[in-house]
């Protein structure tokens, strides 16, 4: 039960800067997901919190105590690894009890804590087994049990579900969420899976190239992506992004082909400036004839609940439309598509940052 | 072979027999000298001396083994009793095997798990000694051991043979397969370097240690050149040396029956080690699951 504060945290490997100054305060009991593509530095950041990587610059504090110079064992954290990192020669019980034994807890206390964790995780029947005799999901639970028994100030998860198959992943995701709700322990969770991030997080920290692109609740990140990167990373299929230009009065934006959209709030200051216009596939609507966009259908994907249509605008730009229900069109057809004004996202053409609205 | 199995009627049986025949031939070639040795140890010296040893057991077995085991006076040549030589060999083989394992597992642990200056230099220094067989450095080593006054002692017999680049490399390779996350999990659990070694690395290395023990025990037991140089008194002789010394040098005839008996006895400890540890040995060589 503690806060985790990162204060301008940096990490360099020689001349390469992997983490370029991350600032974030994680509240007591909060579930923060670090989300980003591989190589964005999210795992490195988590390992710096754990004490497995040195900190080049800035400060990390856990429970108000700066831990920069502390060994992992003294940081009062527990970590769950992607490949579980269970001790192969120890029973499930010993795996969970090992850290407690080292810390010299009395036997009865160890017994009680492991029993409690085993009960929460439904591992009671497996305490005598070796990790090799368990399934992937069970191993993952043991790894979490090892974290729980320590009763740490913070949980650190490093892509804990990536080695599981899709079905088990969904199931374990729900379990992790329940567990964290129940225990209320501050958690940092690294993943590249946006569904995990959206479902688990109280807040998401979207990272790219060692920089925090955006910090916000899952819906904030979805509804108001702070940059083109976030817009493209969150949401599936990703947001359509088109080159556009403000009209002379700043009342609307126009595509190169002449198609114009009226903006909910005019931006006279931006009149005539180029812009990136984003609109999510699920916010596009197929209209009966007056939609501003003309899309030639290339490919139709029927997902059952949804249909995803891949098509092209007259100038060749790709366009993805996602509509609820069964397929309604075929390849080669043209559709008229429109978008409500408040579904439009405007990004600066140069910096890729979201325009204030 | 798959083709034969797909069509068993076209001489498949015969094709299956060929490898068996080859294997049987190999076993015969391997086993026959041993058989002759065992048979020889059951006849008297005169029968063997005539040069036409029967291929069926004789009646002198108990006498031969008893006199080889405990007497220092054969019929024709003086020799050290086998029980003393076997004891010496056993001590030498055990100390070398256990010493090699102890030293090399610790140095491999250092090279594999720690980041220290000149780490790779040390690793390569160990590696390069692989290219130096004992015989190359035997004169300087002898000089050192002699100056230390270790001639005719167990220390002199074993210590120079204990350093082992091979075992260090094998352990290092195995340690490199231990996932980093395991090391990190142990760090978070609060296990220091020594604790991690004792609680995690040693138990995981059990099968490797067993396999190496078998190999190194036999290596130590079969040492010839070094004990030959370092032992002068009969009390320090190892059994491999003893056998060659029992062969007469022209002035006296050779007690072949006793030599055969001694040879059979000398084979038993390595065989016992292999048989007893076979399960572990195979596991250590093939097991990838730790």
UniProtKB/TrEMBL annotation, chain A:
Any Pfam family hit: ABC_tran
Record GO terms (molecular function): ATP binding
Keyword Phosphoprotein: no
Keyword Isomerase set for record: no
Keywords: ATP-binding, Cell inner membrane, Cell membrane, Membrane, Nucleotide-binding, Sugar transport, Translocase, Transport
InterPro entries found in the cross-reference section: AAA+_ATPase, ABC_transporter-like_ATP-bd, ABC_transporter-like_CS, ABC_transpr_MalK-like, ABC_transpr_MalK/UgpC-like, Mo/tungstate-bd_C_term_dom, NA-bd_OB-fold, P-loop_NTPase
Positions of the ABC transporter domain: 4-234
Superkingdom of the source species: Bacteria
Stated family: Belongs to the ABC transporter superfamily.
Protein name: Sn-glycerol-3-phosphate import ATP-binding protein UgpC
From TrEMBL, chain B:
Keywords, sorted A to Z: Cell inner membrane, Cell membrane, Membrane, Transmembrane, Transmembrane helix, Transport
Family: Belongs to the binding-protein-dependent transport system permease family.
NCBIfam families per UniProt: PRK10973.1
Domain called ABC transmembrane type-1: residue spans: 86-277
CDD domains named among the record's database cross-references: TM_PBP2
Signal keyword on record: no
Record protein name field: sn-glycerol-3-phosphate transport system permease protein UgpE
Topology relative to the membrane: Multi-pass membrane protein
SUPFAM superfamilies for the chain: MetI-like
Transmembrane segments: 21-43, 90-114, 121-142, 154-175, 196-219, 256-277
Taxonomic classification: Bacteria, Pseudomonadati, Pseudomonadota, Alphaproteobacteria, Rhodospirillales
Subunit structure: The complex is composed of two ATP-binding proteins (UgpC), two transmembrane proteins (UgpA and UgpE) and a solute-binding protein (UgpB).
Source organism of the structure: Azospirillum aestuarii
């Amino acid at each position: 039960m503690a806060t985790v504060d990162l204060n301008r945290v940096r990490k360099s490997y020689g001349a390469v800067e992997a983490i370029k100054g991350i600032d974030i305060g994680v509240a007591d009991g909060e579930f923060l997901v670090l989300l980003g593509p591989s190589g964005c530095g999210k795992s490195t950041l988590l390992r710096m919190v754990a004490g497995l990587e040195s900190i080049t610059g800035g400060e990390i504090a856990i429970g108000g105590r700066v831990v920069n110079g502390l060994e992992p064992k003294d940081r009062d954290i527990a970590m769950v690894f992607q490949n579980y990192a269970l001790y192969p020669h120890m029973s499930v019980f010993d795996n969970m009890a090992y850290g407690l034994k080292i810390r010299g807890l009395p036997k009865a206390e160890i017994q009680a804590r492991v029993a409690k964790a085993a009960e929460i995780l439904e591992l009671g029947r497996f305490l005598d087994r070796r990790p090799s005799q368990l399934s992937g999901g069970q191993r993952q639970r043991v790894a979490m049990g090892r974290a729980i028994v320590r009763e740490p100030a913070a949980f650190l998860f490093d892509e804990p579900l990536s080695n599981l198959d899709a079905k088990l992943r969904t199931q374990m995701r729900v379990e992790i969420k329940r567990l964290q709700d129940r225990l209320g322990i501050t958690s940092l969770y690294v993943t590249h899976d946006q569904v995990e991030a959206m479902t688990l997080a109280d807040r998401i920290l979207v990272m790219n190239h060692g920089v925090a692109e955006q910090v916000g609740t899952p819906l904030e990140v979805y509804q108001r992506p702070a940059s083109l990167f976030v817009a493209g990373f969150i949401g599936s299929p990703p947001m359509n992004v088109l080159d556009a230009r403000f009209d002379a009065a700043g009342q609307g934006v126009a595509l190169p082909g002449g198609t114009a959209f009226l903006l909910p709030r005019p931006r006279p200051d931006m009149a005539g400036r180029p812009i990136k216009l984003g609109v999510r596939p699920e916010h596009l609507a197929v209209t009966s004839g007056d939609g501003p966009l003309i899309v030639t259908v290339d490919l139709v994907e029927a997902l059952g609940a949804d249909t995803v249509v891949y098509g092209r605008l007259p100038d060749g730009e790709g366009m993805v439309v996602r509509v609820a229900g069964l397929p309604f069109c075929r390849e080669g057809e043209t559709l008229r598509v429109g978008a409500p004004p408040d579904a439009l996202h405007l990004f600066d053409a140069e910096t890729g940052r979201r325009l204030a609205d | 072979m798959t083709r034969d199995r797909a069509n068993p009627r076209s001489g498949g049986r015969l094709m299956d027999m060929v490898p068996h025949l080859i294997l049987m031939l190999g076993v015969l070639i391997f086993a026959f000298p041993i058989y002759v040795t065992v048979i020889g140890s059951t006849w008297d010296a005169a029968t063997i001396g005539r040069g036409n040893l029967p291929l069926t057991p004789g009646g002198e077995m108990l006498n031969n083994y008893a006199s080889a085991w405990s007497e220092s006076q054969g019929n024709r040549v003086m020799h050290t009793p086998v029980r003393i030589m076997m004891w010496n060999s056993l001590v030498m083989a055990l100390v070398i095997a256990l010493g090699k394992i102890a030293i090399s597992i610790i140095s491999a642990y250092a090279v594999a798990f720690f980041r220290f200056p000149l780490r790779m230099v040390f690793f390569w220094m160990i590696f390069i000694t692989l290219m130096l067989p004992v015989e190359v450095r035997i004169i300087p080593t002898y000089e050192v051991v002699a100056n230390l006054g270790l001639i005719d002692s167990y220390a002199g017999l074993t210590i120079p043979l204990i350093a082992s680049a091979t075992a260090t490399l094998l352990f290092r390779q195995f340690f490199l397969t231990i996932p980093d996350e395991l090391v990190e999990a142990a760090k978070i659990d609060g296990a220091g370097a020594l604790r991690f070694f004792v609680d995690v690395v040693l138990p995981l290395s059990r099968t490797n240690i067993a396999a190496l023990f078998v190999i190194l025990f036999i290596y130590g037991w079969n040492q010839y050149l070094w004990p030959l140089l370092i032992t002068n008194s009969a009390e320090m002789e190892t059994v491999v040396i003893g056998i060659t010394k029992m062969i007469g040098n022209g002035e006296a005839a050779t007690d072949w029956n006793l030599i055969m008996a001694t040879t059979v006895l000398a084979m038993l400890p390595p065989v016992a080690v292999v048989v007893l540890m076979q399960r572990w040995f195979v596991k250590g060589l093939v097991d990838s699951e730790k």
